[in-house]
Amino acid sequence: MLQGLRRGLDFLYLASGVAAALCLIAILALIVIQMLARWTGEVFPGAPDYAGYAMAAASFLAFANALNRGAHIRVSLLLNSVGEGVRRWLEIWCFGIGTLTMWYFVFYAQKFVFWSWKFNDISQGQDRTPLWIPQSLMLIGAVIFAIALTDHLLNLIFKGHHRIVRDESHAE
Fold first, then answer.
1. What is the CA radius of gyration of the chain?
2. At a CB cut-off of 8 Å and minimum separation 6, what does 28 contact?
3. How far apart are CA 76 and CA 98, in angstroms?
4. pLDDT of residue 29
5. Using CA atoms, how far apart are residues 20 and 103, in angstroms rounded to an integer?
6. What is the distance between the alpha carbons of residues 116 and 124, in angstroms, rounded to a whole number?
């Protein structure tokens, strides 16, 4: 059962990273379409707004996958200079603070999305998009990141190590 949960979580983190990459491709497409529209004398209203929504979604959706691949900035100078026991407690403290902070963010972000939906809040730009739609993508990414931080914290507490695997391109 735990192996199934592990595979599910790893798939969730990877799928979130793929969704972030698709958002980046959407930004590229929006920029190209807007350029083509300008060259032909047409107008693509709301393109900058949609690109901004895609950038916010890409950022939040990429957090968990980037964490698992060791792409987040970690200051390990102090961690590398202390003993293994102290290092473990410092990492538990850091992951604990990060996890609590992210769940705190998720708690208020879901309220933010709910009230945007409840009051039918729309963007100020030409696109007039209901704001709860792009905010929901941010919230989904934040929830996945909070789950990933919790996952690493629990692994650190119960197994003695986190699950961050550094890519060779990010080696120290």
1. 19
2. none
3. 16
4. 96
5. 21
6. 13
CB 122 within 8 A of CB 131: yes
Q: At what angle do helices 132-159 and 2-39 cross, to 10 degrees?
A: 150
- Residue pLDDT, tens place only, 111-168: 999 999 999 999 887 788 899 999 999 999 999 999 999 999 999 999 877 777 765 5
Q: Would you give the DSSP letter of residue 171?
A: -
Chain position carrying tokens 């699950």: 163
Contact 19, 65 (CB under 8 A): no
C-alpha to C-alpha distance for 70 and 169, rounded to whole angstroms: 10
pTM for the whole structure: 0.87
Please name which of 19, 25, 4 lies closest in space to residue 64, comparing C-alpha atoms.
19
> Please, is 146 exposed, middle or buried when counting C-beta atoms within 10 Å of its C-beta (0-12, 13-18, 19+)?
buried
Could you give the CA distance from residue 146 to residue 129 in angstroms, rounded to a whole number?
Answer: 27
**Residue-wise pLDDT tens digits, 67-79:** 888 776 666 777 7
Residue labelled with tokens 């690109």:
51
Name the residue type at position 73.
I
Write the CA distances from 27 to 48, 54, 73, 124, 160, integer angstroms.
9, 6, 25, 20, 40
